[in-house]
From TrEMBL:
It comes from Enterovibrio qingdaonensis. It comes from the Bacteria. This is Integrase. The keyword DNA-binding applies. PANTHER family: P CELL-TYPE AGGLUTINATION PROTEIN MAP4-LIKE-RELATED (PTHR34605:SF3), PHAGE_INTEGRASE DOMAIN-CONTAINING PROTEIN (PTHR34605). InterPro entries: DNA_brk_join_enz, Integrase-like_cat_sf, Integrase_recombinase_N, Phage_Integrase-like_Recomb. The keyword DNA-binding applies. Keywords: DNA recombination, DNA-binding.
Length: 320
């Protein structure tokens, strides 16, 4: 966790608490709160995690900031029913940050919360294992099943699976896509992710066009939540929604119980497909926008290269 100077002025603390208790707060406010020390994707993660916590607090009628120790413990236990250990750890980091930066006691440090976390981490110790690979064959079958559907949710979910696989997108990248991320260029139809242009297939273009036609989106986030009545939200999708979309993929394929897809699954599958096509670890690393070759090496089963790359990357961090 980076060293962020807390707010010390009592009136500023009160004003900031009132703002963030709303849950949905613009990224500019997060940038100011964190002293401009975090990347865009990190701020998106903080934003989504905080919205998740505030929504939970509203559901159980408790205050999110400052949060009581019991509220945090209940939130952790509630999240553990559907989320993996890594997600829970990230939630705790966000909650800790929010309290420390507002000069408030940190409820995540309380022994009651720490005991609950340690117990859950032990129960979820297998979460650290590699995600199941979402392969091209899975995407092709889902396209055959849902490609002609006129249901907005089907169109959105198929587009999510396609973009995540073809673009090797992380969940944070997917959630951050603006409406104009897919675009026509002289080189063809591409997806803009940060400063990189990723080539998309003709099938992906058809899905993008269908999504725009049915959703009517002309600005804001590209991918959004859809409520039980089929109404489209103005807000981008959060990590929980993305998780449910990939859980649905396994259900549609009749694999529920034998395979569990997560937001990481398309990156695993795409890495393996590229390796099978003769791409090097370095080329896969570049295409997936990894800082180190360790993860793509692990995904394609090269454990020796993965260990060497991770050790080299850690030495570089320590040196920096």
């Amino acid at each position: 966790m980076k060293k962020i100077e807390p707010i010390l002025d009592s009136s500023e603390i009160k004003k900031s608490i009132a703002l963030f208790k709303q849950g949905q707060v613009e990224l500019e406010a997060w940038q100011t709160l964190t002293n401009n020390l975090y990347s865009h994707n990190s701020l998106l993660s903080f934003q989504n995690d905080w919205i998740t916590f505030v929504n939970f607090c509203r559901d159980v009628n408790v205050c999110p900031l400052p949060a009581a120790v019991t509220a945090v413990r209940r939130f952790v236990e509630h999240s553990a029913k559907t989320r993996k250990a890594a997600s829970i750890k990230r939630y705790v980091i966000t909650l800790s940050l929010m309290h420390r930066v507002h000069s408030l006691p940190d409820p995540t440090r309380h022994r009651e919360v720490r005991f609950t976390l340690n117990r859950l981490y032990q129960e979820k110790s297998d979460d650290a294992g590699q995600a199941n690979a979402f392969m091209l064959s899975h995407l092709s079958e889902l396209t055959a099943r849902l490609g002609n559907s006129e249901k907005l949710k089907d169109v959105r979910d198929l587009l999510i699976w396609t973009l995540c696989f073809e673009g090797m997108l992380k969940r944070s990248e997917l959630a951050a896509l603006p409406y104009n991320a897919p675009r026509e260029t002289e080189e063809g139809f591409v997806l803009a992710v940060d400063d990189q242009l990723i080539a998309l297939s003709p099938e992906a273009k058809e899905q993008v066009d269908k999504w725009f036609e049915m959703s009517g989106i002309i600005d804001g986030p590209l991918l959004r939540g859809i409520n039980k009545h089929g109404h489209l939200s103005d807000a981008p999708m959060d990590h929980s929604s993305i998780y449910r979309v990939f859980r649905r993929a396994a259900t549609e394929l009749g694999l529920e119980g034998s395979l569990t897809f997560s937001g990481q699954s398309p990156r695993v599958g795409a890495s393996q497909e590229l390796a099978d096509a003769g791409k090097t670890i370095k080329e896969i690393q570049h295409q997936g926008r990894w800082k180190s070759p360790a993860m793509p090496a692990q995904y394609v089963g090269n454990k020796t290269a993965s260990s060497e790359a991770m050790a080299k990357f850690k030495r570089k961090i320590e040196k920096d």
